[in-house]
Design brief:
8-stranded mixed beta sheet, 17 strands
Length: 490
């Protein structure tokens, strides 16, 4: 097959640039889809980040329901195999139990993506039900980090992160229930925005106002791609029972201007969880860089009960996942999870959480309230909190202590171990505030280290504006201009 462009040319374009070339008649949507499919064939044998490509969507973007006059003009887009469904397509959620599960309808956000001109060409890997930190189970698939395939991509948006980092597509779908956009963005060298509560609808499912905490979004390599995705896909479905935020202008316009002088607070310890000295040093280095851009940088953190917040977050995850797994069992006429089809820690989560009472959930929501108000008070004094995305170095593939194939008998100990590495991301979900991971630092072992910026609720535009200012200041060279070892250009 003759491709429309060289791999160097392909990866020099972000999604907005490719869409503009389609609008000018220089490229066709089917040519973009064919190039993306060729990119998958080129790098995925080493990474195992794609579950399935849709041949019909690649051959005929318009036939896939893609609105070719939408802002992304038929741009190929990979969907995480979790969350929004695609009518008639498989959605197997990284689980042997869900093999053959086929969606009967598009969800609301899927329809918004199609209207935005995104051509949904395939599915990417995720841990079982999105529960753990990596798509790493040899019985299903093992997704590897394109910077060094001995290491994991983390998760749960594992395959999407790997494919964006490796140059397969400029932007891909991701979800975030406690860091699942930001963590894999951070360890794969991508941009990953978790939006505020009240931006993306998860209709027809329950709102995250009910304590579901999971947010939709994307992985990308440019700030304007992320801004364009939010602009095109945000907004409520009919019948929402929570408010949705509407900015005064599109984010694609906001990011063209630098923000004013911001008050930025650095923090590398939350409660008993702290970053390694090497990671803390990288955070300090980035803080000095932001000072050079004219911002005020200090050290501060919200005055909250961190132990109570993490306990509430843990109860939220356990009870939510227990209900998800229970509903799947009921749909299949099963009384308990089959040990040969559901991973061990997910079975223990179901057992631990299925009998939580309303009173326990109410106590959890009360901690959500006090924690959110503590962050709110903090943002009266500071504009941004800056943290590392992870507190520890990226794990190697097969590090089972972070996986749901772990033999740890204690669900609570298993979650506490997760927080030791991923302490800085989940409270944004609890509070419904925006947070973004930017590829600005490096781990001691040479892999990317994301730096997270958080802001008050509905200040998503400010985060994108700061990110765009940084992008301009570094000449667009995220990851110091370096590329992964596994990349379409190699």
């Amino acid at each position: 097959m003759t491709l429309a462009m060289s791999w160097d040319e392909w990866t020099r374009h972000d999604g907005v640039a490719l869409a503009e070339r389609v609008r000018k008649g220089e490229l066709k949507p089917a040519e973009l889809a064919q190039q993306a499919a060729a990119a998958v064939a080129k790098v995925d044998p080493a990474l195992s980040g794609v579950v399935e490509l849709f041949d019909d969507a690649i051959a005929s973007p318009a036939g896939n329901g893609t609105r070719l006059d939408g802002p992304f003009a038929g741009l190929p887009f990979l969907m995480k195999d979790l969350g929004p469904t695609m009518k008639g397509r498989l959605q197997e959620m990284g689980s042997l139990l869900m093999r053959g599960n086929r969606a009967v309808a598009d969800t609301f956000l899927t329809s918004k993506m199609r209207q935005a001109g995104l051509n949904l060409i395939g599915r990417t890997t995720t841990p079982e039900f999105g529960v753990c930190s990596s798509a790493d189970n040899p019985a299903v698939y093992v997704t590897r980090n394109p910077w060094n395939t001995d290491y994991t991509t983390c998760g749960s948006s594992a395959g999407s992160a790997a494919m964006v980092a490796a140059g397969v597509v400029p932007i891909a779908h991701a979800t975030d229930g406690g860091g699942s956009i930001r963590i894999p963005a951070g360890v794969n060298g991508n941009i990953g925005l978790k939006v505020s509560r009240g931006v993306f609808s998860i209709a027809p499912h329950l709102s995250d106002l009910t304590g579901l905490v999971s947010i939709q979004g994307c992985q990308s390599r440019s700030v304007r791609d992320t801004a364009a995705f939010v602009d095109a896909c945000r907004g409520p479905a009919p019948g929402e029972f929570m408010p949705f935020w509407t900015p005064g202008e599109p984010y694609t316009e906001t990011i063209k201007r630098d923000p004013g002088r911001l008050r930025i607070a650095l923090s590398h310890q939350w409660g008993e969880y702290r970053a390694t000295p090497a990671i803390a040093a990288e955070l300090e280095r980035v803080g000095k860089f932001l000072e050079s851009l004219g911002h005020h940088v200090g050290h501060a953190l919200p005055d909250i009960d961190y132990r109570a917040a993490f306990e509430a977050q843990t109860l939220c995850y356990i009870s939510n996942f227990a209900v998800v797994i229970g509903n799947m069992l009921a749909a299949r006429g099963l009384e308990r999870p089959p040990a040969d089809l559901i991973e061990p820690m997910n079975i223990r989560i179901w057992e631990h959480g299925r009998h939580f009472s309303f009173a326990e959930r109410a106590k959890m929501q009360a901690v959500f309230n006090t924690t959110s108000r503590g962050f709110g008070a903090f943002f009266e004094e500071w504009d941004i909190i800056l943290t590392p995305v992870t507190a520890l170095p990226t794990p190697k593939v097969g590090t089972t202590e972070f996986l749901t194939i772990s033999d740890n008998p204690s669900v609570l100990d298993w979650f506490a171990n997760l927080w030791r590495n991923f302490a800085f991301t989940p409270l944004a979900n609890l509070c419904g505030i925006p947070a973004i991971s930017l590829p600005l630092a490096t781990h001691e072992h040479g892999l990317p280290l994301g730096i997270q910026a958080m802001a008050k609720q509905a200040d998503d535009g400010l985060l994108l504006q700061l990110s765009a200012q940084i992008e301009r200041a570094i000449g667009g060279k995220w990851n110091a201009g370096k590329k992964p070892g596994v990349h379409v250009t190699n």
